[in-house]
């Protein structure tokens, strides 16, 4: 296989690197996607809710999102993504071919990873709003999404004939469609369907628009290994945002349980603090009364002798029992012993 260039080698660039940004985004979204899907099924279990059609869509959507993130990391580690194209050519031209193959793989993954969580959201609409207008609009949007995905998959596989011509322009008779236009307009149907699904959170529409804008502003093939960082970043963010949005409406049982448990814990803590403070105050009060009564008792013994002292001690014990309950029983024994 020839190692010929995809595009003419651009003018020299300084040796720069921005691949760490793509790795960071890939790891962050992998964690977020896994956490939200796990929380989704935990909430289902807490609420004793049976699995529905959208749950069958979320699992493969998660697998595809993780695959996109893994490919993005592999592009940085093994295909020179993060460096300018001229730098990659100078060091290892074979990485450019590997980058092109990763780019095609990412195109297939992206198309399916975007449509599955959006179909899951439509399933939620159908279940929550079982009316004819919602049914009609949801099925229409679903049909548009599927048609768009099939079209994008077709062009991703047949954008270049033979496919090797994408990275090897020396193959006789090979030809490609406008790859720049293909990658640019692949996300445009998502903007339309997002706007149609008005209940979708605004960030989803924003991510679709930003990805579309990124491809219109940057040629993914001219200095491709450098340009892939911002382009792949939005390719990761968009399906990840759809997947998280598909999970959010299902988290209510979990949120209610956590909120209720938290409030109950706060109430218990506050009650315990108030009880402890009350007991502490009672003990301090009992000590003050005992000190005063003890002084009176000593004075009575001085005036009335041993017999009077004994009678005074009995009165103190009865008084303490009436005011301090079980705490006074101890002091009663002490007073009797002293008498």
UniProtKB/TrEMBL annotation:
The cellular location(s) given in this protein's UniProt record come to:
Membrane
Keywords assigned by UniProt, alphabetized: Membrane, Transmembrane, Transmembrane helix
* Ranges of compositional bias, category Gly residues: 302-316
**InterPro entries for this protein:** Rhodopsin_dom_fungi, SAT4-like
Stretches of Basic and acidic residues bias are at 274-285
Short name of one Pfam family for this protein?
Fung_rhodopsin
Topology class, membrane: Multi-pass membrane protein
| Record keyword Lyase present | no
**PANTHER family tied to this protein:** INTEGRAL MEMBRANE PROTEIN-RELATED, PTH11-LIKE INTEGRAL MEMBRANE PROTEIN (AFU_ORTHOLOGUE AFUA_5G11245)
Question: What is the protein name given in its UniProt record?
Answer: Rhodopsin domain-containing protein
């Amino acid at each position: 296989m020839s190692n010929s260039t995809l595009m003419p080698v651009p003018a020299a660039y300084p040796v720069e690197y921005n691949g760490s940004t793509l790795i960071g985004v890939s790891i962050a979204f992998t964690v977020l996607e896994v956490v939200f899907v796990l929380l989704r099924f935990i909430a289902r279990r807490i609420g004793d809710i049976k699995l529905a059609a959208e749950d069958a869509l979320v699992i493969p959507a998660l697998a595809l999102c993780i695959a996109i993130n893994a490919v993005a990391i592999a592009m940085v580690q093994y295909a020179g993504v993060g460096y300018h194209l001229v730098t990659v050519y100078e060091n290892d031209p074979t990485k450019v071919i590997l980058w092109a193959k990763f780019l095609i793989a990412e195109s297939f993954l992206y198309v399916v990873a975007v449509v599955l969580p959006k179909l899951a959201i439509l399933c939620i609409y159908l279940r929550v709003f079982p009316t004819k207008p919602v049914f009609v609009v949801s099925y229409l949007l679903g049909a548009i999404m599927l048609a768009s995905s099939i079209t994008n998959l077709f062009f991703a596989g047949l954008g270049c004939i033979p496919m090797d011509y994408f990275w090897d322009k020396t193959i006789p008779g090979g030809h490609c469609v406008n790859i720049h236009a293909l990658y640019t307009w692949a996300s445009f149907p998502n903007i339309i369907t997002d706007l149609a699904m008005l209940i979708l959170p605004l960030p989803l529409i924003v991510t679709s628009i930003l990805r579309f804008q990124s491809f219109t502003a940057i040629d993914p093939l001219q200095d491709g290994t450098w340009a892939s960082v911002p382009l792949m970043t939005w390719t990761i963010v968009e399906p990840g945002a759809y997947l998280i949005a598909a999970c959010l409406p299902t988290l209510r049982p979990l949120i209610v349980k956590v909120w209720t448990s938290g409030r109950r814990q706060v109430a218990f803590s506050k009650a315990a603090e108030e009880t402890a403070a009350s007991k502490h105050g009672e003990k301090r009060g009992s000590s003050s009364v005992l000190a005063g009564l003890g002084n009176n008792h000593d004075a009575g013994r001085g005036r009335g002798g041993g017999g009077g002292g004994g009678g005074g001690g009995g009165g103190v014990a009865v008084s303490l029992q009436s005011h301090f309950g079980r705490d006074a029983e101890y002091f009663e024994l002490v007073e009797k012993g002293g008498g």
